[in-house]
Every structure is written in C-alpha cells, then in structure tokens.
Amino acid sequence: xxxxxxxxxxxxxxxxxxxxxxxxxxxxxxxxxxxxxxxxxxxxxxxxxxxxxxxxxxxxxxxxxxxxxxxxxxxxxxxxxxxxxxxxxxxxxxxxxxxxxxxxxxxxxxxxxxxxxxxxxxxxxxxxxxxxxxxxxxxxxxxxxxxxxxxxxxxxxxxxxxxxxxxxxxxxxxxxxxxxxxxxxxxxxxxxxxxxxxxxxxxxxxxxxxxxxxxxxxxxxxxxxxxxxxxxxxxxxxxxxxxxxxxxxxxxxx
Length: 254
What we know:
- Its cofactor is Mg(2+).
- GO terms for molecular function: 2-phosphosulfolactate phosphatase activity; magnesium ion binding; sulfopyruvate decarboxylase activity.
- It contains 10 helices and 11 strands.
- With 254 residues, it is of the alpha/beta class.
C-alpha cells in the first residue's frame, strides 16, 4: 500500500526520516510558486541557497550579466538582488536562458531539510496536477511544508491538501495510507472546495480568499504584495515538475 505523509513543518520530521522517500516541498507564499514560474519562463535552472552571503559568493563565480539573483528576507527583495520572490516578476524577459541563484526565508531551508530524500520535488497550486502525476506511482511520498518563520501556516497545509486530493483521488482507489496530518490537510482542502461551490467561486479564487487569513498571506498583505495571493492560487496552470539534484545543487524540470 503506498504511503502519503504530510509534515506541517520541517522541524516535525528529522531529515533522516525522509531518506528513501519522494519529498514534495511546499512554500506556497512564495518560493515554490516562484521556482515553478521561473523554470516555466525559461530559467536554465534554479540554485537554492540557505544564506544571502552564500548566494552572493556563488554569483561571483559567474559573469554577473549571465545570471539572475533572486530572493527575499521577510517578504522583501534583498539589497543588490535583481528580483524578489513574487512569481509575477519571473517573466521570460527577466530570466530566460540564465540560471537563477535563489534564497528565501523559509522555502530554501525546507529544500535543504529534504537533502536525504531519494527525490526532492517542488510543489504548489500552479503545478498541483503535474506534481501529483509525477508522484502517483511512488510507494512513499512525503509532503514537507516550509511554514512561515518557524510556525505552521495555513496556505502550505491547503496546498498539501490540494496535492493530496489530486494524488489519492476521490475514492482513494489506489489505497493510499495517510498519516493524520495528510488526512487533516485533505479534509481542509475539501472543505475549501465545498465552500467554493457554495459561494460560486472557483477553487483558485476561494484559495486566494482563504490565504488572506493565513500568516503567510497576512504578511504579504502588510507589505503590499496582496497581488501575489491570486497569482499563487491558480491551480494546474504549469505542467512542470521541478526536481532538486542535491549533488549539483540545481533545480531543473524533471
């Protein structure tokens, strides 16, 4: 029986416990969404870094015009970087044909936490169906939520539930075994779908509304990035499966 586990924070699961699994890392607002959009816009790869200085040091190994430096700390663009952490910034004009050196407050740390996984994928609403299809035949899948500043955040849980819904199917025909957190995320997502149907909203619109009340969403509203909520909430618009190669340190489409 295939097993699906959701972890609401990296601190909830030792890195060693992810060894041998396919791990889907989620940082809905906004690293996962931005990585997917950057690759879809033609970035040659995304190179995630834990610290700002690590990204800057790596950038010195390149012709500066040949790369893109992107990322944020506490939601805001980093001084001297080209782009922040909004997927809306990552157009083909901005990134096509160049590697993206990328560091964020939460998402790149979650990627590092999955360093012992057999495969590390990046998931969000934008590529929900593609990521579920990529993991459908795996015997074990762990969805790792990045959280916000070390705290559980609702948008990651809803995204985990959305991916779980696409993965296990309405009747759980494949017989997936879910841990308590996976079942909770799935239940919360299906409640959102029911609310969307009752209010006449699309699931994507209802997701954007729900994120206005989550810690990550509230933070973005406070710093004037509310436009990123509907941008990140769009379901199934990118048929891309970003995969991190821990040996090369590069994320490329699988």
